[in-house]
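Justification of computing resources. Each target in the renewal requires a structure prediction run like the one illustrated here; the chain below, 605 residues long, is used simply to show the kind of job we budget for.
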Amino acid sequence: MHVSCRAPKYDVSYPRDGSDRPTAEVCQGSLGLQPRMSGGQPTVRRKARRSRTMSDQRSIVRRNHLVFPGVALAFLAGIQVQAQILEQSISLQPGWNAVFLEVDPEPDEISAVFAGAPVRSVWLNEPTLSMGPAADCPDEGEVGCPVTTPAAWQVWYAPDHPAHVISALRSLRGGRAYLIEAAGTATVTLRGVPTSVRTSWRQGFNLAGFHVTRDASAAPAFAAFLSGSAAHAEASIFELKPDGSLRRVEDAATSRIAAGRAYWVESNRNAVYDGPIRIDAASLRGLEFSGTATQHSVVLENLTGGPVRAQVAPVAVSSGGASSEQGAAPLVWRETQPDGTPLWKPLERLSLDLSGRDETGAGHTLRLAVRGDDLRNLGGDGGGGVLSVSDGAGFVRYIPVGTRGDDQNGLWVGNVSVTHVRALTTGEPDPTPTGSSFDFRIIIHRSPTGYRLLRDVVLAYQRDTQEYALVTSECPELLDAGQVSPRISSANFSFDGTIALTGGFDAALTTAAPIAVDANDALNPFRHAYNPIHATGWDIERTPTLTFDDDGGGDPNWGVTWLAGDYAETVLILDPSNPNGRIVLEVAGRFELRRVSNLPRLCGS
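Resulting C-alpha cells:
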C-alpha cells in the first residue's frame, strides 16, 4: 500500500550503472519529502553536518562564581566528561531497511560503521527547524513549536557504487531515522553515547523511530505510546517493506513498536514529542558530576494526562545488546522528609509517581548527586555511567552520566567562631562560654604537595598565559596594575607569605610551628600606637588546630565544596610582669570552610 501524494509530483533523476533500474516518485509537500520507493535512489547534493557527542567535548571549561559571605570570587573548573557507552545492534535484511539510532556512534563515519557490511546506500531526510509561536502547540507544553522548511534527501553511497563520488552524507547521528539499502543480511553493532536528540515532528509524514524497550514482549503499542501527543491523534502509520513499498499499520492499539526500527508516521502539526515522559533537554545531554558540580536536577513530566510512574535506575547490563561499561560513582537521590529536611538515599531502582506537577509547575524534579567521598575515591580520571528512565509500559530513554574524581585541591575560605575560652595558667578546669562569639576569616590552600595557611590572596588574570592564578605576597610580580582583581584577606593574621600546615582534611590541620606575633607587630593587641605606655606589646605565639567532622550530616557536597569542624587555638603570651613570665590561653569554637577555587597551586606554579 502506498501513501497518496498530497502535493504535486516532481521528477527525480537517478544515476545509472548500466542496468535497468526501477524509477521512483517523491511527493514533495511544503514541509518535507515522502518517498514512494521500489528500488531507485534520487541524486542529492548536500553537505552533511558532523554529529556532536559528549565524547567530542574533550574539555569543557567553565567560569564559575561562588559567593561566600563578603566574598565574590570567580574561578575556573575544567571538566572532561567520560560518558558511558551503550551498544545497539542493527539487523539488516536484503533490500530496504528503516532504522532508528538510539546512540551517537563512535566512530560516526558511515564508511567505518558499515565496513564489511553489504550496505549499498544510506538515506537521511531532515528538515531545517526553527522555533515558532508557543500558541501553535499548546498541547505539547513547549515554549514554542518547531517550524520546518523542506529538505532534500542526503545520501551516502558505498565505495563500489557508481554514485559514490556524489555522496553528500558522511556521518551517522543518534536520534535520527535512516533508510538503509542492503545487498544481503547483516548485523551491525553500534557503540556510542545515548542520543540527546529530542524528536521533532513536522506536519505531514515523518520518518521516525521511538525510544522503547528492546524486549519485544514488553514493547508498547503505537496508540499507547503516542497517547501523550495531540499531534498524533488518529495518526496514520506505515512501515517500510524490503522491496521499498509501504504497509499500513492497521491496528495501532495492538501493534507493538519495534526498537531500533523507523516508521512513516503522520503528524497533524509541528511538535516535539519523545514519549509519555518528557525529560528536560539539559539532562538528556548528560549529567556531569565533579567537585564543582556534585548535584544535578532531572525534570520529568507526564504527558499522558493519566497515571504514570517513572522508573529511574542505573544501567549495568541490559538484554538485547544494550550493555554498558562500569566505572561510575554511585548516585544518591534526595527525598524530602515530612519536616522539610532532605534525606539522601542510594539510587538503585527508584519509582516516582508523576501524577500532577510539583511546586515549579513544570513536572517533577529529581535531585541527584554523587557524594564527595565517592568522588575522591574515583581519582582524577573518573568514570562514566548510564541512567535509564522508563514508564513500565515500554518507553525508555537513557541519560549519560560522567563523573570526574576530586582531590580537594584549591582555595578554601571560611569563618571561625570562637565561643569558649579558658586560662591554663590559672588552672581553670573547663572552658568558659564567652559573652558573644568572636568571628574571623580563615584562608587555607590545598595543593598536591600540602596545606598552607594564608593571610591574603588575589585571583589575578595572567594576560600572557590567559589563565587565572592565585597570587600571594610571595609572588607580587604576577599582579597587573592595570587590572582589577578580587582579593580575599584575613585581619586576624599578620604573618608575611604563607605558613605550612600539617595533617589533612581527613582528620585535623595545625601549624607546623607556632605563629609568632612580634611585640612591635601592628596587629599585636597589647600595642597601642597612641598610648606611650603601650608603645611596645608582648610577644605572642599562636597555635591553631582545625579538627574536621567525620561527615556533613549526609550532605553529598561534604568534602568537595564545604567542610566544618571544631576550632581550637593555644595562645602563649610572654608577659615579663607575670610571675610565671607567660600567660597561656586556650580558645575554642567552630569553623566552616567553602571551596571557592579549584586552582591547585599558588602563584601559578
